[in-house]
Structure of Stage II sporulation protein E (SpoIIE):
Amino acid sequence: MTATVDAQSSVVTPPWRRAWLLFRRRGLTTETRIALWLVVVAVGITVGVALWPVEMPFVALMLPLLVASILLGPRTLPWFVILLMVLLTISVSLQVEITPRIVATTAVQFAMGSFVLGTSFRRANLGVGGMRGESMFIDLRDRILTQGGIPDLPEGWLVQSALTSAGGTLFAGDFVVATRRPDGSALDVVVVDVSGKGEEAGTRALLLSGSFGGLLGALPPEQFLPAANDYLLRQDWDEGFATAVHLSLDLATGDFQIRTAGHPPAAHRLAGSGRWSVLRTEGPVLGLIEDAEFHCATGRLGRGDALLLYTDGMVEEPRRDIDLGIDRMLGQAESLLRGSFDGAAARLTEALGSRDDDRAMLVVHRT
């Protein structure tokens, strides 16, 4: 056994004492405390079965198993499950009579323990589990929503966005990223539809929302989509493609530029005529073609004018042409937005589109 010498006191400190002092200094982690309490409960149940084998149901051992599967991490949970299975075996051996019902109950409990054990091994790949894993997913979702926040705009501008995922889940493959130029002169917004739906596309949407947010504020408007395309090509994902529509809006004059990448076209409403027109631009889907070119549509938003940017979930439905879906959306917009644009994006996403697809809508209105 090796030992160390304290330089100040010249006293030899054995390794076991150093470990004990370190343990006292750091104390028990929250997870360790929970595991110890669960062990005490499980042992208490087993003692109860030993003292009152008829009155005390050994199936009560499933209660600490349930709590452990929620609160313990992937490092601690397997050891607790193994301990619990040992205690279950002891409890069964203490039964007065082994009936077919007890055998069936025991088999079910061992199956539940095996399932929790297998789940803990899967969580080990991530390194967290239970409530901490859920907290991470909630944080990821919040970050996606934060990326889509609209920055403060000067008086006379109203910009609203709304996102709805397939099946009502909180993760979506559609997202919105918005940023205002450092000098405050222009607003840049991109509406993106990542391949896949719901949770399947949620992780890719999170990565792309952060990356696109950095590119959007750092590059001139004409360079954003080419840079986004190059970024997706470098990822080399099996489903590494996305569609996007990019709006660059001059907040002083109302002049705008719109570019699309395999995305449904934006729509422009003139307040004078009250009619909507489709701004068709050309550009390939992001992540498929190198050195892609993206054509630009320009215009100006006057007082009362509006723009709609949206994903294909708003206009596509099975066995229906997308142009018919766009016509229906514009007709619905004329009806819903007549007189007030307040809550326009949320109202349109609720009224339109397929419930089996992610949907995103951005409404820009100059008051």
Q: What stands out?
A: The domain at 138-366 is CATH 3.60.40.10 (Phosphatase 2c; domain 1).
